[in-house]
Write a structure and sequence with these properties.
It is a single chain. The protein has helices at 10-18, 62-69, 103-107, 146-167, 178-183, and strands at residues 3-5, 22-27, 33-38, 43-47, 50-56, 72-78, 86-97, 116-130. By secondary structure, the chain is an alpha+beta fold. Strands 1, 2, 3, 4, 5, 6, 7 and 8 form an eight-stranded antiparallel sheet that branches. The chain is globular, with a radius of gyration of 17 Å.
Length: 187
């Protein structure tokens, strides 16, 4: 049933690019495991072992904080259409923040968003596919534009205030250093 591959093939890339949602998983050595749904135009496959995804401002900042303690990350896609398949990418990642020298180069690969928070740069060491026979059929109805409008309405200053209020600490009470890493301010 499950098959393992050392890298992302062209067929894997085609499958990933055809999906409208993926899930990210991360965890610190102690504390809660985080799994988040991701969508929009936020993922780029740069090669057989490298993936980038743009993380937009949201209710939590778990993944970036987890990666400072444990760089393991898993991404997962599943087909909701006729051809059943689940594809997982396992590897290690690090967050690229606005204050990092590589930010502009990597951020240019994505649509601009005032809510851009980090870019996760993942080195993939295992790709796994499995049957997906229990995944239900679903039809894609369209992208939500709620987060885009929310970010635009907040503006840069409002986003930074939101980071200070809602993204400065993980669910387990660990600091995320979001302001220092994103705009150079201490929290």
């Amino acid at each position: 049933m499950a098959k393992h591959y050392p890298e992302i093939s062209d067929a894997h890339r085609e499958f990933v690019e055809a999906q409208h949602i993926f899930f990210s998983g991360s965890a610190a050595p102690e504390g809660r495991v985080n799994v988040s749904p991701k969508g929009m135009d936020s993922l780029r496959i740069l090669g057989p072992n490298r993936v980038l995804w743009l993380n937009l401002t949201g209710s939590g900042n778990e993944t970036a904080a987890h990666l400072t303690e444990d760089p393991r990350m898993t991404l997962m896609w599943c087909s909701f259409s006729k051809r059943p398949l689940i594809l997982r990418m396992y590897g290690t990642a690090h967050a690229v923040h606005r204050t990092d020298a590589r930010w502009e180069e990597l951020y240019a690969l994505f649509p601009s968003s005032v809510g851009a928070r980090q870019i996760f740069d993942m080195t993939v060491d295992l790709v796994q596919t499995s049957c997906g026979y229990a995944v239900p059929f679903m039809e894609f109805a369209g992208e939500r534009d709620t987060l885009t409008h929310w970010n635009e309405d907040k503006g840069a200053e409002g986003i930074e205030k939101f980071w200070a209020e809602k993204n400065a600490e993980t669910l387990d009470g660990k600091p995320t250093d979001i302001l220092a890493l994103s705009i150079g301010e201490t929290e």
